[in-house]
From TrEMBL:
This is Metalloregulator ArsR/SmtB family transcription factor. Residues 1-104 form the HTH arsR-type domain. SUPFAM superfamilies: Winged helix' DNA-binding domain (SSF46785). NCBIfam families: HTH_metalloreg. It comes from the Bacteria. PANTHER family: TRANSCRIPTIONAL REGULATORY PROTEIN (PTHR38600). InterPro entries: ArsR-like_HTH, HTH_ArsR_DNA-bd_dom, WH-like_DNA-bd_sf, WH_DNA-bd_sf.
Length: 113
C-alpha cells in the first residue's frame, strides 16, 4: 500500500477528522467555524486540521482581505487515490463472488443430473 494511502487512512481513522471532511464537502470553512460546528476548542481543532493538512486531505488558504484568516478546503488527489484502492478491493470481492456463484451453480446442476 502506498505511503500516501496509509496517511489518508490514518487521518480518516478519527471520527472528528471525518466530521471535518463532511463539513468541508459542503463548503470551505474557517477553522473557528469547523470547531464551533463540531463543538470543539480551537486548539483541539487545530491539531486535527494539522493532521488532515499533513495527509494532504485539506489545504489552508489565506483570505484575500485578511491574511490572518485561514480557510480550509478539501483536496481531491488523496480521495482519488483512496477511491482507486477501494475500487481494486471491490473488484477483488466481485471476482470472488462471481467464482463462488459459478461453483454453486455447477454443484446445483450436478445434483439435478
Amino acid at each position: 500500500m502506498p505511503a500516501d494511502l496509509d496517511r489518508t487512512l490514518a487521518a480518516l481513522a478519527d471520527p472528528t477528522r471525518r466530521g471535518v471532511i463532511d463539513l468541508l464537502r459542503r463548503s470551505p470553512r474557517r477553522a473557528s467555524e469547523i470547531a464551533e460546528a463540531l463543538d470543539m476548542t480551537r486548539p483541539a481543532m487545530s491539531r486535527h486540521l494539522r493532521v488532515l493538512r499533513k495527509a494532504g486531505l485539506v489545504r489552508e488558504d489565506a483570505q484575500d482581505d485578511d491574511a490572518r484568516v485561514r480557510v480550509y478546503r478539501l483536496e481531491q488527489a488523496p480521495f482519488t487515490g483512496l477511491r482507486g484502492w477501494l475500487d481494486e478491493v471491490e473488484e477483488f470481492w466481485a471476482d470472488q463472488l462471481q467464482a463462488f456463484k459459478a461453483h454453486a451453480e455447477r454443484r446445483a446442476r450436478g445434483r439435478r443430473a
